[in-house]
Specification:
Structural class: alpha+beta
Shape: globular
Radius of gyration: 26 Å
Amino acid sequence: MIIRNYFILLLILFVSCKKDYPETDVDLTDYIIQDGFQLKPVASEPLLIAPVAMDFDNRGRIWVAEMNGYMNTMEGKGEELPLGTIKILEDRDGDGVMDHAKKFLDSLRLPRAIAHVYGGLLYAEPPNLWFVEVQNDRPVNRILVDSMYAPDGNPEHQPNGLMMNVDNWIYNAKSHFRYRQKNGKWLKEPTTFRGQWGITHDNFGRLYYNDNSRQLLGDYVLPNRTTRNKFLKPAHSVHKLLTEDQRVYPLHASLVNRGYAEGILDKDSLLVDVTAACGPLVYRGGMFPLEYDQNVFVCVPEANLVKRNILEFHGDSTSAYQAWQGKEFLASTDEGFRPVSLSNGPDGALYIVDMHRGVIGHHAYLSPYFKKKAKEKSLDTIINRGRILKVESENISIATPVNLETATDEHLLEWLDHPNGWVRNRAQQLLIDRNKKGLVNSLVNLVKEKEPSISQIHALYTLEGMDTLDFDLLLQVAKNGEEQLAAHAIVLLESFVNSKNTADFLELGNGIIKEKSLFKDIYLASSLGIWAHGSKELLAPLLVEYSILYKGNPIISEALVSGAETILEDYKVILDQNDFDRSSILYQMLLESIQNKADAILNPIYVSKGLKEDPRTKGAKIFRQICAACHGINGGGNEGLAPPLVHSEYVSKPIERLALIVLNGLKGPIHVNGNRFEMNQAMPGLKNNETLSDKDIADVITYVSNAFADNPQWISEESVGELRKIESQDGNEFTEAELLELDFEN
């Protein structure tokens, strides 16, 4: 193993020492893209290897994070080696194809995310989140932003994404924290837990993400609008499944990890539903036909394809549907095609990061079925490759990328209304970084434009980033602006909460409620409790009016109760005095918050992160690496992935039943604490994991029992060895019925 790892390291060092390469020449005849579009290779090996994330700098150059050490063998050997790099790719002859590469950082262990922000580069290398300034394409003044960004765990289930949103906060997938630099200091605060791999936003600033078996999830509302009440965990406004349709239409019978399980493949051995969805992207490039604007594209690497979804907005909610039935936007029979992330480019094209690796599932989760089939098809030999592809419209000429590096202030102001969302976002951030107060009047005038435009939202948040917002401006925009702009103004007004401004806010609210705008009412409702904190008597009538109007609407009810954390008891008294419907969704939500406050039960995003690990056992570490991604680090479970372990019947006596689940896996449905869990995918067993001994498995079983059962138990490695002999009826995962039939008393 040492010799093999040495040669892998030598190969990567040799490749990374080169700078100039022959231009990419990739055969794309096995790829079928939707009519009216063309697929072009931008870069490939040996220019880059195993790319997982990309970003563009202000000159339009491509930066890539390479996870070179990931799954070079079916056993994952070499994963611990510092083989990863961050590279800068350049097109020096101007033909649109990369022909030069330089290392920016190397000797990284599984880097997973990068973002150009604040004049430098933010990058994730577990467990740390780092920020470095960039001078002459070299890293300087490195700062540790978060030492617990991606703590030890399975590489498939660690935070990633690093996406700057319109609101000037940086969001992540597989994380419940967001980040921002303000006055030279890095801020970190809780937010909704979102997705698994990849995150994106629309023009308004709503967030979209997904997980393995659900191709598109999203928030109905702007970030953190319904999470401010620490004693309420929102269930109706965030982390919502936007489409029930998980169907995929591959061109061929691709190898899928649990393809043997019932319902995974159809009669032609084609994948039926997504099993490894990732890398969603809201297209905002402005260079596709109009009907593609703000469509969400989703990577499905297990089936070698990219999906297209169309969003629909309903005032207080969002839904999506697949653009077509029976075909995909892009699909291939190339089993090395592994799209893992997507980007909007400075030229308006859609860019695809293709890891181009035969096996991208982590070794801890690979089934014996997959390992056998992958060896037969030589998928394990597709390594040391990587591609970046781009999609252009055939009928719309691609835009000439702007050079933000040399842009004047006037250009940046103009580009806040650019048709390309990537340009708009970057222009906003550069204006904030330059922080020229002389531009404030121009920005204010832009916000006040009579003709509604997306530039107004960007201008508003440029002012916010420069700390130059004005209460009267926000009030005017909230009253008279287009509804999306007005919603942002209502949100930003909260920074001016005081007794002097309350009467003006009350007048605003009384006007908005008469408009009957469901969209604006969400944001006004979410602010009422904040403003009422110091002016309950003044705001009470409007609070009651909104409560009565939306008592049966779960989304606006969450908005109302979320903003009311500091007045929960007073809010209840006000409603009771007005004979409010106590059976309503809103009232029950309010009661739940009051009880949670009394019992000190917090929304999990506000609970201190991490486990109380017993340093004397290995079980906790194994649990974090393999089990926590689905069951939650605190055993609370994850919707659509795995049921909770806390107080579960299957974690209590007999421990042998828990051991059989851990060894062999479990396929749903299953009942836990009286609730039925469908489990979209079977839980994999550990007995075929060659890196785990019987002692290791005994440790993790014992840890789970001690951590989550009411009556902790212990199991020996000898018992684990004996239990290996017990198999399910079909030799694969157990079902609930089979487990309940087993008698462990005799």
